[in-house]
Write a structure and sequence with these properties.
The chain has 414 residues and is α/β, with parallel strands linked by helices. The N and C termini lie far apart (48 Å). The chain has a 6-stranded antiparallel beta sheet, with helices on one face. Strands 10-9-8-7-11-12 form a 6-stranded parallel beta sheet, with helices on both faces. It has 14 helices and 12 strands. It folds into 3 domains: 4-146, Orthogonal Bundle (Globin-like); 154-254, Elongation Factor Tu (Ef-tu), domain 3 (Beta Barrel); 270-408, Nucleotide-binding domain of ferredoxin-NADP reductase (FNR) module (Rossmann fold), CATH 3.40.50. The protein has helices at 4-12, 14-35, 45-50, 52-66, 75-88, 95-110, 116-146, 236-243, 279-292, 313-322, 337-341, 353-360, 373-385, 401-408; strands spanning 154-164, 169-176, 190-195, 204-209, 219-224, 250-254, 270-275, 298-304, 326-332, 347-348, 366-370, 393-395. Heme b binds at residue 85.
Length: 414
């Protein structure tokens, strides 16, 4: 239990975190990997280079500090991060390592302003926050292991089938090497894939959404091969999976995790909005709805560059033709001549709020969306402008949900 004095000190540092948060977390990662290089096996190096990891951590630290006396108010962020930690295999003994380096980073960045009183307050506060995560994650580990077909940490899977879905997306069908049972999952969840790439010192872990309905004898992930530039490095793991992994190869997989899941406990109409490879969790949701809830109306809207980059287009078209509950709309930014010739899309350009209103008629639906960050901001902002209530807006986003909500206010739907 924190004293009121400690709480007051922590809250007094919130303005400082707003100004220096990313400097502190950048320094933290430098110290962490310098002092504990074994943790390079856990963190996404591409996100480090782009600053995404630092930004996400800074936002999480800021939120924890601002709500230090009422952590229950950020329980959704705690759940989101805890699921990712469980999927990555984060252990309780790693939390003191993180705390030590975080305090050192605060001291380095703030200098004399980081007095012993401030550092001691943060030490106490960090322990409270760490204990909350450790406790929550313990339950997630137990749940993952105790369900039928479940396991903890990583399990070996065979690549049973590899299918090219578009110019940049390939699906991998995965079955347990031990031939044992396969844990079910909630539509929208993901798994972590751990690989050791020849010539690369550290192992790498990436999280990929499961792209088919549960209750199959396989897991399916559909991976986009990321191309790089000066700002964003090549997707090392996605390139490895596309170019090196073959049918019959072995991959190490964590049990399913994630909080972006389909609500299967109501009968409200569902609208699924995806951009690019963001279609993967929503494809799982579509397949589940058609298989299990044939009376629940579903509108699926996907945005892609053009037909060459559109995965599962034929599958969705056939699904809609066989199931009256499902309506599909495809939006292509730059349609090809073939797209135009075969009229394989419904709108050219981008998804706009005016267009959504014209095809949906009502906003009394459950909205789920996933895609690139600009797409996410536009969808969130547009739905809020339309008056969709917050509890009916669901999305998958890197980092705390509040970051998207804050940034979206300045973004207009194109």
């Amino acid at each position: 239990m924190l004293t009121q004095k400690t709480i007051d000190i922590i809250k007094s540092t919130v303005p400082v975190l707003e100004v220096h948060g990313e400097k502190i977390t950048t320094r933290f990662y430098q110290l962490l990997f310098q002092n504990n290089p074994e943790l390079l096996n856990v963190f996404n190096h591409a996100n480090q280079k782009q600053g995404r990891q630092q930004t996400a951590l800074a936002n999480a630290v800021y939120a924890a500090a601002a709500h230090i006396d009422h952590l229950e108010e950020i329980i959704e962020d705690v759940k989101l991060i805890a699921h990712k930690h469980r999927s990555l295999g984060i252990k309780p003994e790693q939390y003191p390592i993180v705390g030590k380096n975080l305090l050192a980073a605060i001291k380095d960045v703030l200098g004399d302003a980081a007095t012993d009183e401030v550092l001691n307050a943060w030490k106490d506060a960090y322990q409270v926050i760490a204990n909350a995560f450790i406790s929550f994650e313990k339950g997630l580990y137990q749940q993952a292991q105790e369900v039928e077909g479940g396991w903890s940490d990583f399990r070996k899977f065979v690549v049973d089938k590899k299918v090219k879905e578009s110019e940049v997306i390939t699906s991998f069908y995965l079955k347990p090497q031990d031939g044992g049972a396969l844990a079910s999952f909630l539509p929208g969840q993901y798994i972590s894939v751990k690989v050791q790439i020849t010539g690369v010192e550290n192992s790498h872990i990436r999280q990929y959404s499961l792209s088919d309905a549960p209750s199959k004898d396989y897991y399916r992930i559909s991976v986009k091969q990321e191309s790089g530039n000066d700002i964003k490095p090549d997707g090392m793991v996605s390139t490895y999976l596309h170019q090196q992994i073959k049918e019959g190869d072995i991959l190490e997989i964590s049990a399913p995790a994630g909080v972006f899941t389909l609500d299967e406990h109501n009968d409200r109409p569902v609208v699924l909005l995806s951009g690019g490879v963001g279609l993967t969790p929503l494809t799982s949701m579509v397949n589940t709805l058609v298989e299990k809830y044939p009376k629940r109306p579903v509108t699926y809207i996907h945005a892609a560059i053009n037909g060459n980059f559109h995965a599962f287009a034929q599958h969705m078209t056939e699904l809609a033709s066989k199931n009256k509950q499902l309506k599909n709309y495809f939006v292509y930014e730059r349609p090809t001549d073939n797209d135009r010739r075969f009229q394989s899309f419904d709108k050219e350009g981008f998804i706009t709020i005016d267009w959504l209103q014209s095809i949906l008629k009502s906003n009394q639906m459950d909205f789920y969306f996933c895609g690139p960050t600009p797409f996410m901001k536009a969808m969130y902002n547009g739905l809020k402008q339309w008056g969709v209530e917050k509890e009916h807006i669901h999305f998958e986003f890197f980092g705390p949900a509040g970051e998207l909500e804050e940034q979206a206010e300045a973004v207009q739907v194109r």
